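TA notes, week 10

Several of you asked for a full example with nothing omitted. So below is the full record: structure tokens for the whole chain, then the designed sequence directly under it. When grading your own attempts, check the secondary structure regions first.
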């Protein structure tokens, strides 16, 4: 068994201890916490994929191809492309976070 020490204020410590009592164990609390965040990331990724479908249909290219072209300067900086690029960057970050939590 490993131990982690956190420096937190007493109010936060009281809340964490209440959650631990509520869940019955520290392990279960943190398992549920991680599970919650994995599910949240999965939902975010699914919403972004819906956005990608709209952009891909409108501009007739896949998001990965678009992003590579946009980042290399092969595409103009129009409003759609800037938004699409931002969503794609968030998608990549969310996928990376999900992998770290798995």
């Amino acid at each position: 068994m490993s131990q982690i020490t956190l420096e937190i204020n007493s109010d936060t410590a009281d809340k964490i201890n209440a959650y631990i009592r509520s869940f019955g164990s520290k392990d279960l609390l943190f398992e549920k916490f991680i599970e919650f965040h994995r599910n949240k990331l999965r939902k975010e990724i699914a919403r972004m994929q819906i956005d990608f479908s709209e952009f891909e249909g409108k501009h007739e290219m896949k998001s990965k191809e678009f992003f590579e072209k946009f980042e290399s300067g092969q595409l103009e900086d129009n409003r759609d492309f800037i938004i699409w690029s931002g969503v794609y960057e968030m998608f990549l970050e969310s996928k990376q976070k999900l992998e770290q939590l798995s």
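Helices lie at 10-23, 26-59, 63-71, 79-101. Use that as a sanity check on your answer.
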